[in-house]
Amino acid sequence: MDAATNLLDGWPAELPEPVSLEPLGGGWVGSTRLATLTDGRRVVVKDCPYPAAGEADGLAALRTAGVPTPDVLAASGARLVLEYLDGTPDWAAMGTTIARMHRCTGPRYGWHQDNRAGRFLQPNAWSEDWPSFFAEHRVRTHLDDPSVPRELARRLQRACDGAVQARLPSRPVPSLTHGDLWTGNTVAGRWVIDPEVSFADRELDLVHMLGPSRNPFPPEFWEAYEHEWPIPDDLGERRLVLGLHHRLLGIRHFGDRSVPALIADLDALNW
């Protein structure tokens, strides 16, 4: 029995069947493969460790905001089937697009449902107050995970009792945010994938996008973004606080190797 035949188990009924299957790079959280269907279309098949409907919901939100994303062809159980895309990068267009995405605003901070940040639940209960939303749903939510060292969890619990909130503005624009935007969550420098959407301060996206990466966004991306919506000059004052969410996600996903960076940030914050 070949791999394409194995894929038929749980295959979405609304799509033609796959006849061939190839490995596809990426997909650390879910497994991704490239399938050719009986009608000749090539599609990306992503098998997730969570219901695929949540990721489809995020992609739909991005597309409604004008962000180029792959078409969702099916979201059935834990399987997401997307159109296969390739092309020539247009980083400047993407920079403009992401700034415009951030200009799409919601009524409050949160989302209409909880979704996923990598392998883990991302709580999105609505809040009128950004600092408390961030402290509770982007920091404290991680602290019971056994992979987070107990002393660091205690330091962060104390910080969430007031120090975190004191460093953040209370009513920034509740922007539509991707949640995990880096070049690895783009396709061919033109399309965006793997959303963890919510309405949040856009600075949460910006800090992650500007952070250390083996594949940073190129200058033309940032020039276009800043032309559409300049980055605040004082963003650096909030960088370490807003970076706590992804520091903690790093520990939960990758373990001890991610701990020293969090310790350094907490020491720099004097927490």
The pLDDT mean sits at: 95
What would you report as the Rg, rounded to the nearest angstrom?
Answer: 19 Å
What proportion of the residues form beta strands (DSSP E)? 15-25%
User: Percent of residues in helical segments?
Assistant: 25-40%
The helix-strand sequence is: HEEEHEEHEEHHEEEEHHHHH
Overall form:
globular
Biggest β-sheet: strands ordered side by side in the sheet: 1-2-3-5-4
Low-pLDDT regions: none
Total strands: the figure is 11
Question: Cα distance, first to last residue?
Answer: 57 Å
Write the layout of secondary structure elements.
Layout: H1 3-7, E1 18-23, E2 31-37, E3 42-47, H2 52-64, E4 72-76, E5 79-83, H3 91-102, E6 115-117, E7 120-122, H4 130-139, H5 150-166, E8 174-177, E9 186-187, E10 191-192, E11 198-201, H6 202-210, H7 219-228, H8 239-242, H9 244-254, H10 259-269
Antiparallel strand pairs: 1-2, 2-3, 3-5, 4-5, 6-7, 8-11, 9-10
Helix pairs in contact: 3-7, 4-5, 9-10
Could you explain the architecture of this structure?
By secondary structure, this protein is an alpha+beta fold. The protein is 38% helix and 17% strand. It has 10 helices and 11 strands. The strands form 4 sheets. Strands 1-2-3-5-4 form a 5-stranded antiparallel sheet. β6 (115-117) and β7 form a beta hairpin. The longest helix is centred in the middle third of the chain and has 17 residues, at 150-166.
Summarize the structure.
The protein has 271 residues and is an alpha+beta fold. Helix content is 38%, strand content 17%.
